[in-house]
Design a protein that fits this description.
The structure holds 2 protein chains of 2 kinds.
Chain A: H1 2-11, H2 20-29, H3 32-56, H4 92-128, H5 130-144, H6 148-159, E1 163-166, E2 172-175, H7 178-189, H8 192-205, H9 209-216, H10 221-257, H11 268-278, H12 285-312
Antiparallel strand pairs in A: 1-2
Helix pairs in contact in A: 2-12, 3-4, 3-12, 4-5, 4-7, 4-8, 4-10, 4-12, 6-7, 7-10, 8-10, 9-10, 10-11, 10-12, 11-12
Chain B: H1 2-21, E1 35-40, H2 55-61, E2 69-71, E3 80-82, E4 90-91, E5 97-101, H3 124-135, H4 154-163, E6 179-183, E7 186-190, H5 198-201, H6 212-218, E8 232-238, E9 242-247, E10 254-255, E11 276-277, E12 282-287, H7 291-299, E13 305-307, H8 313-316, H9 325-329, E14 332-338, E15 341-347, H10 358-367, H11 370-378, E16 382-384, H12 400-403, H13 410-424, E17 431-436, H14 440-455, E18 460-465, H15 467-475, E19 481-487, H16 494-497, H17 517-526, H18 533-549, E20 552-565, E21 568-569, E22 585-586, H19 588-601
Parallel strand pairs in B: 1-12, 17-18, 17-19
Antiparallel strand pairs in B: 2-3, 4-5, 5-7, 6-7, 8-9, 9-12, 10-11, 13-20, 14-20, 15-19, 15-20, 16-20, 21-22
The chains are: A mainly alpha, B alpha+beta.
Chain lengths: 319, 602
């Protein structure tokens, strides 16, 4: 039906309308600060991608050799080591850069898991209502009544050391440890917010004309939900994701700080945990390095997320 | 409803007023009382000596209970003297029968469990009851290891308790051939085989006498109601926060030692010689588990002694290893003493890769930079270990450094790795080092080891885990190699040798699952020998055999640093003794002066 409409509009030489996405992106591009933040986010993502490639293909680059001794123990920042060295003479800069990989990996997988659970559950609950809705609401109300950090901690502790059989995916038996535990714990506990939003949005949309039209054409419920409703509410997912990405990074930092995260490789949380004991000795640089790394990505994601919301949410369009 | 609300609000107001009236200066005490303030770094689990297995509970219970023997507070090397025993035991010629006379006129502290509330006189039967109670399998004591297979008839008594349905059903009047009371003040112990270390164990808290009346009266709640013969009684115990002990008015007349070690007179340790102890009326102990607040309380003068947390080491000790100017200004004293401890990376000798590959074990040993480890993780509070017997022990072998092949040498380690590959028949697989602890210090130590092993060309991963998981891994022989240590229970190197005896393999104390018939033969020989130069030489010979076989990377022997304020007198560190508060004296005028000093410096 839509295709026919577009065809007839083109034939009538009418001005071509912009989709929600195209319009949103056009507005976004006008915001310089948002674009700067996007560049910062892209830099972090590229760095993470580069570390993955370097490790996969065994490239000998300094960032993957973070455990190399580059100076004496506890060397303050200098021209040679701009973020100083740690208790083993390892470079603070390399560890901070490598930490991006751990944090972004955790945030990415936690997002995938939380969206994978929250979006379908929210859509189904909002669309079907009744008993299905009550069950979903009961589950997320129960989960949200437990303090978030305690819930993540509980999940992380329960999952730690467990094995899952991924033989069907050709991965064999995988032991849950380090960051796998962390992103599973975060992902499994943080879907409530997005589920609520999607549920409410679907409830709002389910009686709109385009849905009624699809229903009148005899579309199945699943087709209506995933082909018609989802594209119209997905901007909420994107906005929410950009804002929650920061909290996932912070959750990783907290879990690593509490000793439940990455053990053998540097992560920002582990660096802060270590630096906590070094601060009284006057070794401030490790704490500073990790904090700055978190600060820049958090700021960039927050500013960019706000701009994205302003651009994509029709109600907030002021420009 | 209105009345209930009024009542509730009145009660609430009273509580508020009471709380507002409290301050943080501790309990209200009689101004003439001498009070000692201390901090506990862990919770007290219980005060029943028969089931005490942790050092914090032991430290508190030792103020309340006494044993047959104790360590001389001042003399070094450490020497046993009598406590509840009248004299040292009379030992039969075959070394199998010990006759011990018990002091007369020793009374249990007054308690409701006794008739009329008055403590009764200590008898030989109280020891027999306490030891049978440890043997009772229904009691599930942690301390059965002390008597396991040692005393005639006691193992049979334990078997009998297995047939009882409950604790209450166990008949303690059932005779045990090896434990008899010749009269109320004479205890006779018959051993299955000679056991020269028995006197050390008779100075160990779990062997303290228990009044049957107290066990019958309090039942399972006995852990909260200690009734002993010691210098202090339990006055108050808020589990998990606060313990208060008061002087036992019926404590037998014990006096401060009149003789000490060389230098004790000059250091003022004999100023109170011959004075009746305890010299303190009340002991207040607060639970402070974290290092920073404990350190803060010490600097504020709210507690009298403290170790030095790793993070505050530079604040207390300068580059020369002496007290900093600030500490000296505060009149704080430093005591340094050797720990009877050895720490190591132990190999599971039953592991297919490590157990059959001595060059690999030696390579790992040569890869670890002990001096750097001591510098980084103990603030130089340790001595490099070349064997397992600590320098504090009489049997310590000064020649052991020359004997060991596994001292730090990365070049040699790399060569040994090549030999190890030849023995293995190819590239070595990745090895796993199990470490207890998931905190930052454990992770840093793990990173340090990884660096050392990487330098030697070894591929080793670190597996961090909590303590119960770690213990389970060791006990089930599933750890490949592991980070662990041992602190001696008594000043006899036999306590270390048992860790390498093949019959003690996991789940026993031989975590290495080490087995060497020659070592076993020596161990069996020395286990029944009395203290003698010949036995000391055999200890050293046994240690050399172990060092040659390299079942562990011996890392360090601990050195302890303890600080105390100048108002605490007679503070002499002791590696084995508990319950030493009775020897201390508090100068309350000096304590007040310190508070003035703090006030003036604000």
């Amino acid at each position: 039906m839509n295709r026919d409409y577009e065809k007839s509009a083109a034939n009538a030489n009418l001005p071509r309308g912009r989709s929600l996405w195209a319009d949103g992106l056009r507005r976004l591009r006008r915001r310089r600060l948002a674009m700067l933040c996007l560049a910062v986010i892209a830099a972090y993502v590229l760095l993470t991608g580069f570390i993955y490639l370097a490790e996969t293909f065994d490239w000998q680059v300094s960032v993957t050799n973070w455990d190399e001794k580059v100076g004496t123990e506890y060397e303050p920042p200098s021209a040679g080591n701009i973020l100083g060295t740690d208790f083993l003479g390892q470079s603070g800069l390399r560890k901070t850069l490598y930490g991006a990989k751990v944090s972004l990996t955790v945030a990415f997988w936690a997002s995938v898991i939380s969206l994978g659970i929250g979006v379908p559950l929210g859509a189904i609950a909002g669309y079907f209502r009744g008993v299905v809705d009550e069950i979903v609401v009961w589950i997320y109300t129960t989960l949200s009544s437990i303090p978030y950090i305690l819930l993540i901690l509980a999940f992380a502790l329960v999952l730690k050391g467990k094995t899952i059989d991924l033989g069907w995916a050709g991965l064999g038996i995988v032991e849950l440890s380090g960051i796998t535990t962390v992103y599973l714990a975060i992902g499994l506990t943080s879907w409530v917010g997005i589920c609520r939003l999607i549920r409410a949005e679907v409830m709002k949309h389910k009686n709109q004309q385009y849905v009624l039209a699809a229903r009148s054409y005899g579309c199945s419920n699943m087709r209506i939900i995933f082909r018609h409703l989802m594209p119209n509410v997905f901007h909420i997912v994107i906005i929410n994701l950009s804002l929650r990405f920061v909290s996932f990074i912070q959750a990783e930092v907290i879990l690593s700080f509490l000793g439940l995260g990455e053990k053998d490789r540097p992560s920002w949380g582990a660096m802060i945990d270590t630096a906590r004991l070094e601060l009284p000795k006057g070794h401030w640089w490790e704490m500073t390095a990790a904090t700055l790394a978190i600060f820049f990505i958090s700021l960039a994601l927050n500013v960019f997320g706000d701009a994205l919301r302003d651009s994509l949410d029709p109600k907030l369009r002021t420009q | 409803m209105g009345f209930a609300l009024k009542l509730l609000s009145t009660a609430f107001t009273i509580v508020l007023l009471l709380v507002a009236g409290c301050d943080n200066s501790g309990p209200v005490v009689d101004s003439n009382e001498v009070v000692s303030y201390g901090a506990l770094s862990a919770k007290v689990r219980g005060l029943d000596p028969g089931d005490i297995g942790d050092t914090t509970s032991s430290a508190v219970a030792s103020q309340i209970f006494e044993c047959l023997y104790q360590y001389n507070y001042l003399k070094r090397p450490y020497k046993l003297i009598t406590q509840l025993a009248q004299d040292m035991p009379q030992v039969s010629d075959d070394g199998l029968t010990y006759t011990i006379r018990i002091k007369k006129g020793v009374y249990f502290a007054d308690d409701h469990c006794f008739e009329g509330g008055n403590g009764r006189e200590l008898k030989a039967d109280d020891f027999i009851f306490a030891w049978k109670r440890i043997a009772n399998i229904k009691y599930l004591s942690k301390n059965w290891w002390i008597f396991d297979g040692r005393i005639v008839g006691l193992d049979e008594f334990r078997e009998y308790t297995k047939t009882c349905k409950s604790r209450a059903e166990v008949d303690y009047s059932r005779p045990v051939e090896g434990l008899t009371a010749r009269d109320d003040h004479t205890l006779v112990i018959k051993l299955k085989k000679p056991w020269s270390q028995i006197t050390y164990l008779l100075a160990h808290l779990p062997t303290a006498p228990i009044a049957k009346e107290a066990v019958d009266y309090y039942g399972k709640d006995i852990i909260n109601h200690p009734v002993g013969t010691g210098p202090f009684k339990l006055k108050l115990w808020h589990r998990g926060s606060y313990i208060e002990l008061v002087r036992n008015p019926d404590f037998r007349g014990e006096v401060y030692p009149c003789e000490g070690a060389a230098g004790d007179l000059e250091n003022g340790y004999l100023a109170d010689a011959g004075r009746r102890i305890p010299m303190i009326d009340r002991v207040v102990l607060v639970l402070v588990q974290e290092d920073p607040p404990r350190w803060f309380l010490f600097l504020q003068g709210k507690i009298e002694t403290s170790g030095i947390p790793k993070d505050n080491f530079n604040e207390a000790i300068d580059q020369k290893g002496v007290l900093t100017a600030d500490m000296r200004k505060r009149n704080i004293h430093l005591r340094i003493f050797r720990d009877p401890s050895t720490y190591w990376l132990g190999f599971n000798m039953e592991d297919d890769v490590l157990g059959r590959n001595k060059p690999l074990r030696e390579a790992i040993s040569c890869a670890v930079d002990r001096e750097k480890y001591i510098e980084l993780f103990t603030n130089n509070r340790g001595e490099v270990a070349y064997g397992f017997i600590p320098p504090l022990m009489k049997a310590y072998d000064p020649q052991i450094k020359q004997m060991t092949k596994g001292t730090y040498n990365p070049e040699k380690a790399r060569q040994l790795v090549k030999q190890a590959e030849a023995v293995y028949g190819g590239k070595l697989p990745r090895l796993t080092l199990s470490m207890a602890g998931t905190d930052v210090v454990a992770r840093q130590a793990g990173q340090f080891y990884r660096r050392c092993f990487k330098n030697a060309g070894l591929d080793i991963q670190i597996d961090y885990m909590d303590w119960p998981t770690f213990q389970n891994k060791i006990k089930t022989k599933s750890a490949q190699f592991f980070s662990l240590g041992w602190i001696a229970d008594y000043p006899d190197a036999e306590n270390f040798l048992q860790l390498f005896y093949s019959k003690n393999a996991s789940p026993g104390p031989n975590n290495f699952n080490y087995s060497n018939p020659e070592f076993d033969k020596i161990y069996e020989q020395i286990a029944v020998m009395p203290d003698s130069p010949e036995r000391t030489e055999l200890y050293r010979k046994a240690e050399r055999i172990v060092v040659e076989d390299c079942p562990a990377v011996f890392l360090l022997h601990g050195v302890a640093y303890v600080l105390h304020h100048d108002w605490v007198h007679n503070y002499k560190p002791h590696a084995f003794g508990y319950g030493l508060t009775k020897y201390r004296r508090i100068d309350t005028a000096k304590r007040a002066a310190y508070k003035e000093l703090l006030r003036a410096s604000r």
